[in-house]
Amino acid sequence: MSEPVDLVALHERAQSRRVVVVGGGVGGLVAALELAKIGVRVTVLEAADRLGGAVRSGEVAGLALDLGAESYATRGGHVRALIEDLGIADLVVRPGTGAGGAWVAGVPGVGAAPLPKGGLLGIPGNPFGEDVRRVIGWSGAWRAYLDRVKPVLTIGHEQSLGRLVESRLGKRVLERLVAPVTSGVYSSSPERIDVDAAAPGLNAAVTRNGSLLGAVLQLTEERRSAPGGAVEGLRGGMGRLVAALAARLEELGAEIVTGAEVVSLEDGEVRVEGGDAYPADAVVVAVEEGPARRLLAPRGSLAPEPPVAGPVVEVVTLVVDAPALDAKPRGTGVLTVPGSHTAKALTHVTAKWEWVAEAVPAGAHVVRVSFGTADEAPATEGLDERGAAVLALAEASRMLGVDLDPSQLLGQRRERFRQSQPGSVIGHADAVADARRRIREIPNTGATGAWLAGTGLAQVVPDAIAEAARIRHELLFADPAG
Ligand SMILES: Cc1cc2nc3c(=O)[nH]c(=O)nc-3n(C[C@H](O)[C@H](O)[C@H](O)COP(=O)(O)OP(=O)(O)OC[C@H]3O[C@@H](n4cnc5c(N)ncnc54)[C@H](O)[C@@H]3O)c2cc1C
Questions:
Q1: Which residue, 394, 411, 400, is CA-closest to 360?
Q2: Is 236 helix (H, G, I), strand (E, B) or coil?
Q3: Is residue 292 domain-shared with residue 341, that is, in the same domain?
Q4: Which CATH number do you get for residue 247?
Q5: Residues 304, 443: one domain?
């Protein structure tokens, strides 16, 4: 018969344990919260002078804006549950619908056109749809239609999204519809995207339906009837989530130290630049892949360098006095055909988020221009702040189809990010499984964050919760003598 659990002893044990969480991005803060909730003594060490990591808020032209992540996917319900738990559900907002969707720019012979609705990663279900034909033309539509008559067995199981789309639907669908989406969303070309990771079920649906077009129609239909699939944001910006996490941690007695770059993990303590050491019965490493590997490698068998470095992305946020943008000429934003612009994407923030539109003076607008993919360094790299703003403004002019002059600039800010390798890149799932296995061999050590969980808060939050639960269990139930 198993022994009864002594709850008082468990609680006392939790209170006697110290955990250091390395990294104060959302992953680190959520892991810290999961541990602090049960009474564990938690310290969060963050290298930067502010918390949040890729969720970065800041002031531009007197407005408090998101400079990094600006929303979360509702898929899975994990981020929403966290927001509710933190008591800030009243801040949840949905993107405005009045502006229409996103556009695609740089289409040869066409320029800019609305991104067709209802597809999957840009792959249309019906190539003759008016909105699809506008982008790929009649010849592109007929070429895509060949998919319906091609024998399905010629593809079998295709791993590369790019190869699947090109072989079934042709170059125009690939270059004009799918590449803008993968470049904008995953910072990667379609060739490097793993179909099974980016569009689970698509390969099987191709086999079932006998065509890629049929498969996309079936999956988009299923998604329409399933809950989720949308994004939400927070009034005041996603920075509110970081502030609420920090406030809750402080209420629970956790210690948060910024400006503390961790340089080594040793047995029983964590060292920061400058020499301070923090005692730790366990550690959760919640930093980007490069620093995570450098910290964890000396403790076990993990390689100290990432197999592939993630893309560097620069986001230039511009506040412009431009009443011409009141008409929301390109909906909520623009993706570009790779090679046609130096920028990969633009978000018309004041068209997308009502709370931002309400905050700006009449005629003023906020646009965010993003540069840099896995295949191309950001064109703004090496430019000074003003130079980056002028380039971003010129790109915004072309993408929005509205002349914007530097004299209209009310404020600008450039932020640089090293993104983790998107989870849907070919080979990434195996690399992550291998890394997790090696990390689990290190006693009392956990790791979380976008490089393991996949990019996006909808992935980062549940992964941090699960990893904190694993460490909690190890701390409370491992035999101290063993
Ligand atoms: C421009 C951009 C836009 C995005 N937009 C969205 C979006 O709209 N929706 C969405 O869901 N996701 C979005 N994402 C992705 C999402 O923001 C990230 O996946 C998520 O925030 C990553 O959280 P994290 O905790 O894993 O890592 P990070 O946020 O990268 O945090 C890691 C932290 O560790 C710190 N650190 C590093 N080294 C050390 C060290 N040695 N010692 C101590 N601290 C250290 C860093 O300073 C950083 O604060 C976006 C990402 C970017 C870059």
A1: 411
A2: coil
A3: no
A4: 3.50.50.60
A5: yes
Q: In which element (H, E) is residue 30 found?
A: helix 26-36
Q: How far apart are CA 150 and CA 14, in angstroms?
A: 62
The confidence score (pLDDT) of residue 156 equals: 54
Q: Do 219 and 185 have their domain in common?
A: yes
User: For atom 1 of ligand 1, which residue has the closest CA?
Assistant: 68
Is there a single domain that holds both residue 198 and residue 342? no
In a mutational test of the pocket of ligand 1, which residue from 288, 296, 380 has the highest number of ligand atoms less than 8 Å from its CB? 288
Which CATH number characterizes residue 386's domain? 3.90.660.20
pLDDT at 153: 53
Q: Tell me: the pLDDT tens digits for 105-144?
A: 999 999 999 999 888 999 999 999 999 999 999 999 999 9
Residues 247 and 208 in one domain: no
- What is the per-residue pLDDT for 51? 98
- The DSSP element (H or E) to which 45 belongs, if any, is strand 41-45
Clarify whether residues 252 and 298 are in a common domain: yes
Q: Ligand 1 pocket by C-beta < 6 Å: which residues?
A: 22-28, 45-48, 53-55, 68-73, 261-262, 286-288, 291, 313, 315, 417, 419, 449-450, 455-458, 460
Select from 69, 158, 38 the least CA-distant residue to 455: 69
Q: From ligand 1's centre to the CA of 354, what distance in Å?
A: 25
pLDDT recorded at residue 436: 98
**Do 270 and 20 contact (CB within 8 A), yes or no?**
yes
Segments of the chain scoring below 50 in pLDDT:
1, 228, 481-482
Report yes or no on 78 lying in a domain.
Answer: no
Q: How far is the CA of 28 from the centre of ligand 1 (A)?
A: 10
Is residue 243 a contact partner of residue 235, using CB atoms and an 8 Å limit? Answer: no
How many domains are contained in the chain?
3
- pLDDT score of 481: 47
Q: Is residue 202 part of a domain?
A: yes
Question: Cα–Cα distance between 285 and 238 in angstroms, integer?
Answer: 22
Our mutation pick for probing the ligand 1 site, out of 33, 46, 262, counting the most ligand atoms within 8 A of Cβ, is 46
Structural domain boundaries, residue 206? 115-225
- CA 26 to ligand 1 center in whole angstroms: 7
Q: What is the pLDDT of residues 149-166, one digit of tens each?
A: 887 655 556 789 999 999
Q: Ligand 1: which residue has its CA nearest to atom 27?
A: 25
Atom 22 of ligand 1, residue of closest alpha carbon: 450
